[in-house]
Amino acid sequence: MVTSETTRAEEGRPDLCWMDIGVDKLGRCCEADEVYYFQCDIGGEQFEFCKEACELRDAFVREDVYKKTNAGGTSYSFYLDYRKGAIYKSKTKGHPPVILLNPVEN
Question: Can you give the pLDDT at residue 6?
């Protein structure tokens, strides 16, 4: 299982959080045909979503999701609506989501 986690909501937009996924990490997850998980613990509320890694990567490529490069490598960077499980390219959510995630039932 491969997971990205956050505990911080975006300032001024409490329904969003900024997340990064390493391009190489997501690629390895695809090669292993794994599911990618997102866990958010915001103000004591927990949210968990998942998506097939290859489906996620293909959506990032198709929608030209922002890539940033730093000392740790290259990452896809995006906004996650952690209440609805929707990934957006911008903070404004003025566009349709890049992809909708599946809720994880506990």
Answer: 84
